[in-house]
Write a structure and sequence with these properties.
Blueprint (H helix, E strand, L loop, with lengths): L10 E5 L1 H5 L12 H4 L2 H4 L2 H6 L1 H17 L4 H12 L4 E4 L5 H4 L5 E3 L2 E8 L4 E4 L18 E4 L8 H13 L2 E5 L11 H7 L3 E5 L12 E3 L3 H11 L1
The chain binds adenosine-5-diphosphoribose.
Adenosine-5-diphosphoribose binds next to helix 1.
């Protein structure tokens, strides 16, 4: 692989579940994916929460316990290293596990929210505890049961976060997608925005995806292997 020797000034890393897979966090789709074992209709949508909030909160608590056991891998560290040398680089992630932040990355946009946050819909307050997977309180002081601050199926994305993402992606000159199936919109449309604004687009994924034709370069390797290759070029 040869990347032109131009120094890219605005880099966006666009990450999905495959980025966390080598840390031991399961992906959503494919064999062993979360949606193989759990029906999202029972655990990851507002109507499931309305019907049985404790059941949904237990599921998310389990995911926090599992995520806590995992550690960022060399690929996360390479992104942090690149960011340290390039202050105008961003991470736009669909992941909710907080792994980029645990690798000390900055400028992280969490498109689908965070597993580590709960929110009170009445007071619009967000409660965050990145250390304790088992939240001491499941209810707000106002009495309302707290909801995971996650974009679930059938939810709209947060418009402010989406606007910020569009602004950053439309200005980037290098767009590196890592470990996403490109099947969940509107996130899956983001690479097209980078491409139409002239960014060099690179896909790191062992598999072909519905968005692969959008990319100028495809690295058919795992996230860590692909990022090790890429680091030599940047
Ligand atoms: N390195 C890189 N990519 C990998 C690896 C790996 N080690 N292992 C798997 N992959 C790739 C798979 O080939 C697949 O294309 O990661 C992708 C994972 O796809 P999904 O499970 O669909 O995850 P993602 O694209 O992040 O899903 C988007 O769907 O369920 C929702 O809200 C959830 O944010 C999630 C969204």
């Amino acid at each position: 692989m040869v990347i032109d020797s131009i120094k890219y000034s605005k880099i966006v890393f666009f990450t999905g579940a495959g980025m966390s897979a080598e840390s031991g966090v399961p992906t959503y789709r494919g064999s062993g994916g979360i949606w193989d074992s759990y029906k999202w209709q029972d655990y990851a949508c507002q109507s499931a929460f309305d019907a049985n909030p404790e059941h949904v909160l237990d599921f998310h608590e389990l995911r926090r316990i599992e995520a806590k056991k995992c550690k960022p891998h060399v690929g996360h560290q390479i992104i942090t290293e690149i960011q340290n040398n390039n202050k105008s680089s961003w991470i736009v992630t669909q992941n909710i596990d907080g792994m980029h932040q645990r690798a000390q990355s900055k400028n992280v946009i969490e498109l689908h929210g965070s597993l580590w946050e709960l929110r009170c819909e009445a007071e619009m307050k967000i409660f965050m505890d990145i250390k304790n997977p088992e939240y001491a309180e499941r209810s707000c002081k106002c009495g309302l049961i707290l909801r995971p601050n996650i974009i679930w199926f059938e939810d709209n994305l947060n418009q402010k976060i989406l606007n910020k993402t569009y602004e950053i992606v439309s200005q980037c000159d290098l767009f590196i997608s890592i470990g996403t199936s490109g099947s969940v919109f509107p996130a899956a449309g983001i690479p097209k925005l980078a491409k139409s604004n002239g960014a060099l687009c690179i896909e790191i994924n062992p598999e072909n995806t519905p968005m692969s034709s959008n990319y100028d370069m495809k690295i058919r390797k795992s996230a860590s292997e692909g990022l090790i290759d890429l680091r030599k070029e940047l």
